[in-house]
Amino acid sequence: MSDEIERSYPKTVCIGGGTGLSTMLRGLKLYTPDITAIVTMADDGGGSGVLREELGMLPPGDVRNCITALANIEPAMAKLMTYRFDKGHLKGQSFGNLFLAAMYGICGSFEEAVTRMGDVLAITGKVLPVTTEDVRLYAEFENGAAVLGESKILAVKKLSNCRIRRVKLVPEHPKALPQSIEAINEADLILIGPGSLYTSIIPALLADSIADAVKNSPAVKLYIANVMTQDGETEGYTVSDHVKSLFDHCGGRIFDKCLTNNKVLPEEALEKYKEEDAEQIFADMDELKRLGMTVYERPVAGIYDGYIRHNPRLLAKEIMGIYADISKEKGAEMP
What domain count does the chain have? Predict the structure, then answer.
C-alpha cells in the first residue's frame, strides 16, 4: 500500500513566529506528526538579541519556542527549557536559548543546531529557520518615520502614533532555506499565523521565494487571525486590515481562507488590554468577502494565566476539521 493511501494526516506547514505560532503547534502535534514550522529570523531584542550580538548566531528565541512546543519530553524537562534566569549576567536569558547556543557551538551551523536540538527533544515534525542569513527588520510609518531593528519598532510606533506602512528585511530578499521551499511545495495544508503581524508573520514571508511558493502551492491555505490587536503594531486593526497588509507585502493574494475566533471573552479579561489600546478582533465579514476570503468563525480563544490566547487543542481541532471539509468538497481523498 502506498504512503499516499496509508497516510491519514496532512503534511502541514506553519509560517510565522512568536507566541502565536508555538501555541498553535502544541495543539497540531496531537493531530499530525508531519509538521514543518518555518520561523522568522528577524528578532534582535531580549535574550535572543544578546546571543545574536555576543555569539554571532541567529536569534534563537522563536525557534526555541517552536521546538519546545513540539517536544515530547517529561514535564520537568519542559519546565527546564522555558526557565528564565532572574539575576546575574544571565538575567532575562532562557535556558532553552542557551541550550541552542551550545548546540550551535558544537555543530558550527545554526541550521544543524536546530535539527540536533529537535532530535534531542524528540519533537513531532521539524522546525526550520526561514533563512540562515543575518537579517534585520526595517519599518516605515505613515508619517515618514523609519527604524531599523525589530526590538525598536514598538517605541517608534508609540512615538509616531500612526500605522506602520511597510516592513522589509535588511538585506532585502535573503535566500530562503531550501528545505523551507521544499516543505511548502510538498504541503497539503499551509497555515499562516497566528502571531505578530509585522514582526513575526510578514518577516517570515519576505525571504526570497517564500511568498511565491505559498501563492503557487495547490495546498489548502488558511490564515489564522489573531484574537486581539497588538500594542505597538496593530491598534485599531480589523481582520481585513491584517489580510490587506499581508497581501500588500507579498505582492498579491497568497491565501483565500481565514479562520477567526468568534468567542466573546469576558469583560474582566479584556480590561487590562484596554490600557494598551488592544481589543478583541472579530471578522468584518463584508470587507473580507470583498477581498475574496472564505471565512470560518470558530470559538477557539481562551484565557490562560490571565492572558488571552488561542486554545491550542480547540484551534488544532478546528483547523483539521476545516481541512477535512475542504478536501471533501474538492472530491479528493484526504492524504
Answer: 3
Tens-digit pLDDT profile for residues 109-131: 999 999 999 999 999 999 999 99
- CATH number of the domain bearing residue 315: 3.40.50.10680
User: Are 108 and 81 part of one and the same domain?
Assistant: yes
Alpha helices in the chain (DSSP H): 3-6, 18-28, 46-55, 61-70, 75-82, 95-107, 110-120, 153-160, 178-186, 202-205, 210-216, 239-250, 267-274, 285-290, 312-329
Q: Is residue 332 located within the same domain as residue 227?
A: yes
Share above pLDDT 70 across residues of the chain, in percent, rounded to a whole number: 96
pTM of the predicted structure, to 2 decimals: 0.94
- Give per-residue pLDDT as tens, 175-189: 999 999 999 999 999
Q: Are 51 and 11 found together in one domain?
A: no
**Cell numbers 554571532: residue:** 56
324 and 210 within one domain: yes
Give the CA-trace dihedral at 227, 231, 233, 236, to 10 degrees.
Answer: 70
